[in-house]
Amino acid sequence: MKVVVVESPAKAKTINKYLGSDYTVLASFGHVRDLPAKDGSVRPDDDFSMSWQLDDKSEKRIGDIAKALKSADHLILATDPDREGEAISWHVQEVLNQRHLLSKVDVKRVVFHEITKSAVLDAIARPRNIDSSLVDAYLARRALDYLVGFTLSPVLWRKLPGSRSAGRVQSVALRLICERESEVEVFKPQEYWSVEVKFATREGQAFVARLTHLEGLKLDRLSLKSEAEARHAVSIIEGRDFQVVDIERKTVRRNPFPPFTTSTLQQEASRKLGFSASHTMRLAQRLYEGVDLGGDTVGLITYMRTDSFNLSSEAIGSARRLIERDYGGSYLPDSPRAYKSKAKNAQEAHEAIRPTDLSLKPENVRAHLDPDQLRLYELIWRRTLACQMASAELDQVAVDIASADEAAMLRATGSVVKFDGFLKLYTEDRDDPAPSSDSAEDDNERRLPAMASGDTLRREAVNPEQHFTQPPPRYTEASLVKKLEELGIGRPSTYASIIQVLQDRNYVRLEKKRFTPEDRGRLVTAFLSNYFHRYVEYDFTADLEGQLDDIANGRIDWKQVLRNFWQAFSKAVDGTKELRISEVLDRLDEELGPHFFPETGQGDPRLCPRCGTADGGRLSLKLGKMGGFIGCSRYPECRYTRSLVVPTGEPGDDQGLSAGPKLLGQDPETRKDVTLRLGPYGPYVQLGEPEGEGKKAIKPKRASLPKGLPAADVDLDRALRLLALPRQIGLHPEDGKPIVAGIGRFGPYIKHESRYVNLKSDEDDVLTIGINRAVTVLAEAPERKGRGAPTGKNIGNHPEDGKPIVLRSGRYGPYIAHGKVNATIPKDTDPDTLSVEAAVALLTARKEATSGKTSKKPVSKKAAAPKKAPAEKTAKKTAVAKSPTKKKTKPKKKSAEE
Predict the structure, then answer these.
(1) pLDDT beyond 80 at 217
(2) Exactly one of 138, 146, 192, 303 is catalytic; which is it?
C-alpha cells in the first residue's frame, strides 16, 4: 500500500481515481504547521531557530496520514510544485519523523503541473527527494516576514496610535499606492487645445486631419495653451486652401501575446472580466484541481502559480494542429513560437498557465462550469491558442496636408487590418486607456479614402477643442500587480494576498476599481519612509527577493541572509526606542504638510478656520485612537477638527467642508447655529458650539449623515431632522408600544421594545419611514440569535406549569424552549406543524437525558483534611471578618495583530 499526500481534498479525489486501489490519497488541507502568532517563534539569538505549531485541524490531518501509514510501506508527498508545496511536504515529513512513524516507510516527493492521468502517472514513476534548497528559501522568507511583522508592528502601535501592523512586502506595495496618490494630489492640470479639420476629396469622401505645424513651427500636444491661440490657428486655416503633399504607407506586424503567467492572468482577468486577484486565483485553483465532466474528473488547466512562459512540446503541437484544422494554414506560423520572461528574478521554470487539453473548447465544458469558471477558462484557452498563431498585419497610412504657403500643415492617419492573424481570437486590453479623445491610437483606427500626392481637398468644418492634462491614474489591481512584477517585488503566489491584506487592514480602499490610500495607510507609509526608509525601498526589497532565489538555487546559505538582514534591521528598530510620539507627529506633520495644507495663494493654509488669526490657532496633524486627523493647536479651547483630506477648493471636495464648517441656518427653537462639518469619520451636522472649558465643557449635539446621503443634499430642514433622532414613529398596533427610528453605530435602525432592526438605506429613509412600513420591516426581519433575541413562535403552553413552549431558530437548526430546557427538533419533523403533545414529549426526553449528568467536581485523590474544631472555625471567621477585602481583577488579555 502507498500513501499519497496532496494539498486539497478536490485534488485528492481526482488523483485517487487515476492511481487505483493500491494507493490511498489524503489531503493536508494546505500547511499543517505554522509559526505561532506570538513573539519568540523565530529566535535570532539562537541562530534563527524556529518553533512550529500544529492546530487542531492539522492534528486531525496528520492523524489520518499516520493511521494510513500503519499498513503502508511508501509515503509519496505530492503537494504543489512550488516553494510552498515543497515546504508543506517538508512539514509533513518532519512531523511524522518526530513521531517515529517513518522508520520503515520509504518517503519520496513527486510533482505534477497538471491534474491529468498521464501527468500523474508520469510523476509517480519519477520520484525524488525533498529539495532542501527550496525548503531553505521558504524558511528564509517565512522568517523574514515574521521578524519584520513582529518587530516592526509593536513599534507602530507605540509610536503611531491607530495603526495596525506592517508587513515586509505589503508595506512596499502600500508605498506605491501612497506615492501615486501624492502625485495625483499635487498634480496641476494644464489647459491645451487641439485643432481638427474635416476635409473632403474630389469624390466627396470625408476624413479628419489634425494640425501639426503652424507658421513654420512644429506643434506638440501642449503648444496651443489657450483658446486665443487656438482661434488664431483657426483663422490661419480658414483663410487658405489645402492639398495633399505626401503619403506614407507601411505594413506593420503585430505579434501575439505570450501565454499566461500568474501575474498576467490576474491582470487580464481584472481588465477583461472585472475579477479581483483573489477571485481569479480561487477560480484557477478549482480549474486546476479538477472538474467533473460527466463522471470523469479532469484538471482543466496547468498549475496556476508560475512566472514561466514555457509551453511543453505536446501543448505546442496540439495548438498548431488545432489552428491549422480550425483556422487554416495561413494562421499557422512557419515554426513554433517561444517566449522569454522579462520579469525580474523569474523563478522555477514551470510551464505557463494553459489548458491541459486544448481540444476541450469552452463550448465543450460550458455545462460543467459555473459562469465565472467558464469565463476564466475561455480566457486561458484563447490566450494559449493565440500565442501560437501568426502575426497580424496592418496597412498604416499617413497623409500630410498643407497650404500653398505652408503656414499650416496637418496630418491624417489611419490603418487597415490586412490580415487579422491572432487578432481573430484574442486582443489584449490596455491597463489605463487614455481618458481624452485626442489619442493618436484612436487616429490609427480610422479608415482613410484613396488619395494621391497633389490632390486638392475641400476644407469643411474647423474644430478647435479644449483639453486638460490628466493626473497619473491610480493603480488598479491589474496595474499594481504589473508594477510589483516589474520591480521584482513579491512572487506570483503572493500578489493576491498582498492586495487583500492591504484592504483588510483598512490601509487602502478600492473605489471604481482604483486603489486610494486611507488616512492610516498614508501615516504608516510616512512613518516607515522616515524611520525605516531602507526597508521600504523598491530596490532593497527586490534585491532580497533575488537572494531568496539564490537560496532556492543552492547558491547561498539561508541563515547568512537572515544574519545580514537582522543585524541592520534590529539596529534600526533600536534607534526608535527613545522616540516620543510628539517627535513622530512633528516629523509626519512636516512630511505630509504640503499635501494636507497646500498653498492656495489665499493666506496661510494652516490657520484654523474657526479661531485662526495672526496670533490664533494653527492646524497640524494629530493622532487619536482611530488614527490621524487635523486639529487646532488651541485645543481644548477650540475643538475644530477635520479628516486627513486635501482641501482642493472644488465643489466635489465634500462641499468645501475641508476648509471649515458650512452654516446651514439657525434652529428656530434654540436660535443656535446648525452647521455641516467634516470629522475624522466623515460629514456630520452639529447644533451650536461647545459651552464651557476643559473637562466641564458641554458638547454640542451632533448627528452623522446616513451612508449614501451626499453632503450636498443636506439642508437646514434635513439637518434638524437628523439632530432630532431618535424619533418615535408611532405605536405598534399589536401591543401599543412605541416604535423608534434612529442612527446607531451600525447605521439607521428601528427599535421596538428591546428589538433592533437595521434599515437598508436603498429601501427606507430613517427620516421619513412611517408606522405601516416600520411594522412590515419588523415582521419581515429574521430573528436575531444569542442573548437578547426576540421571542419566537409560541406553540402553546406546557400542561404541567402553563408556561409557553417557544419555537426558535438556532445555529444548528430549529429547536423548542421551555424554561431552561431546550430540545432539538428532529430533521424529519416539520417545525411548523409541531403539536404541543409532540413538543412536550421532546422536552421530557431531553430532560431525562440530561438528568443523569452531574456538575459535581471530581473528588481529589488526596486524603481529606481533618475537620477543624469549633473553636478553630470561630477564630478563622473572626480573622476573615477583620481582614480587608480584595477586589478580584481579571488579567488583561494581550493581543497582537499580524
Answers:
(1) yes
(2) 303
